[in-house]
Amino acid sequence: MNLGAARSLSREDWRALAARLRPETRMLIDGHFLDSMTGGVFETINPADGSVLATVSSAAGVDVDRAVASARRAFRSGCWSRLPPRRRMEILYRWRELIEAHAAELALLDTLDMGKPIADALNVDLPAVIDTIGFMAECVDKVDGAVTSTAPDVMHFVLREPLGVVAAISPWNYPLLMATWKVAPALAAGNTVVLKPAEQSPLSALQLARLFLEAGGPPGVFNVVNGPGEIAGKALALHPEVAKVSFTGSTAVGKLMLQYAGLSNMKRVALECGGKSPQIFLADTPDLDRAVAAACNGIFANMGEVCNAGSRLLVERRIHEEFVERFIAVSANAYRAGDPLDPATSMGPLVDRGAQRRVLGYIDTGRREGARLRFGGDVPSGLGCGAYVNPTLFTGVDNGMTIAREEIFGPVACVIPFEDLDAAIDIANDTIYGLAAGIWTRDLATAHRLIREIEAGVLWVNCFDEGDMTQPFGGYKQSGNARDKCFDSLLSYTQTKSAWLRITQPSG
Questions:
Q1: Does a structural domain hold residue 484?
Q2: Is the overall model pTM greater than 0.85, yes or no?
Q3: Strand 436-440 and strand 458-461: pairing?
Q4: What is the predicted pLDDT for the residue at 507?
Q5: Which of 254, 133, 240 is nearest to 188 (CA)?
Q6: Does 163 map to a domain?
Q7: Is position 414 annotated as part of the catalytic site?
């Protein structure tokens, strides 16, 4: 069922589709769905009610070896890497069309697997997946080299070539979209891929790869291995035949990826890790209602499980009380916790019980350290069977508090007052992270200064979390080193080769 038809379905329709769903649970290697060679399995759980969705094959080291070998054979055969660019584009366009045609199933898989509201899956994730693949397909024949100016008896040119086998390790908060941000540019550049989705949400990745085969993608070009990061992810990052590992996840695991690359073959490592993004609200914010709505959405959307979530709300003291009052008023009706299969639900559960315990633990820490809990901090009434946490607001927060320094990855907002612009810049940059930031002011000079001085890879002025496929997405400091989306993302999956040709021999 395509995207348009899926958006018209009711809660009862989605429940009926879920009851009939029989997801693929094996690994995809060399064009075939296969069980683990060791028989390993794990359960994937529906966080809305704690039920077991499926028992999924779990990759051991031998399965990772098998997948990488398949990808390596496919790359060396040239069945994809040397395919004429226009033909590679045709397959990627067909893949995009198939994803749109199967939008209902893909959205349902992510909703059941990690608790994302079905409306978000249909209106946010799937359109972005379709845009990503379309953009990368358009870029295929835009990759070129260079011929430099040399002496007349010499010709020098620079080729840009794919790297080889790319290992993509994707997170659970946007299962389909984050996988696509890695896989689409890697494939568009001519590489072959082994994708390891997060063990909390593996199901949509298998369907994504199946549709690539259906679109005409050669076997072995796109493989999927399931399993825990400490086994399957580690094996990929250490594998000597993997040319690049692209990882999105925690900063702690990102550091391990760098170590594994150094211990193996010095493979390239692209990291998109944690964040503790500030939004800075100046007293001259042009539209305070719009700013407050953006602040609310910036931390509570996707249950706060967003790497660039605007979790630190830096508010100039002159508007602090008014800002907080409006934030409380807006938040009272903005997010409705409930069944993720209900299109009216805007707040689903966290990904699992462990995440729920962690977020509730941070809330308890905030109370103990002296922050003022203004609302939330608990589990929604009647939803105790799931991993839910209510939207939560703390005021009276100091940037030295745990809830202001550590990535909570849940719907917890912290309001931090500041006196002047220098103080705002100091607070914004007083963090190990540097993924994103928001700036709210009507003064162009102030905005320009903040853009220059805030240590973050993505900045929004008088908006938050907007953009399109031309926008590089990635961070500074311990938020990582990669840039997703954009044309440069595709180029990061290539390498250059310099060829110096002597046309005539020198005389004498």
A1: no
A2: yes
A3: parallel
A4: 66
A5: 133
A6: yes
A7: no
User: If we measure between CA atoms, which residue out of 475, 477, 28 comes closest to residue 248?
Assistant: 475
Strands 372-375 and 192-196: unpaired
Domain containing residue 95:
3-274
CB 118 within 8 A of CB 18: no
Q: Both tokens of residue 236?
A: 């990929």
Give residue-wise pLDDT tens across range 139-173. Answer: 999 999 999 999 999 999 999 999 999 999 999 99
- Catalytic residue check, 305: no
Total of domains in the chain: 2
The two tokens of residue 262 are 């150094």
The one catalytic residue in 139, 273, 296, 307 is 307
CATH number at 89 reads 3.40.605.10
Question: Same domain for 294 and 349?
Answer: yes
| 48 and 11 Cβ atoms separated by less than 8 Å | no
pLDDT greater than 70 at residue 508 = no
CA dist list (Å): 478 to 276, 395, 432, 482? 11, 26, 6, 11
Regarding whether 359 and 234 lie in a shared domain, the answer is no
User: What's the rounded Cα separation, in Å, for the pair 43 and 274?
Assistant: 26
Which of the following is catalytic: 272, 305, 316, 407?
A: 272
Domain final residue, candidates 256, 274, 292: 274
Tokens for 63? 């399965």
Query: What is the C-alpha to C-alpha distance for residues 452 and 446, in angstroms, rounded to an integer?
Result: 10
Whether residues 209 and 283 fall in one domain: no
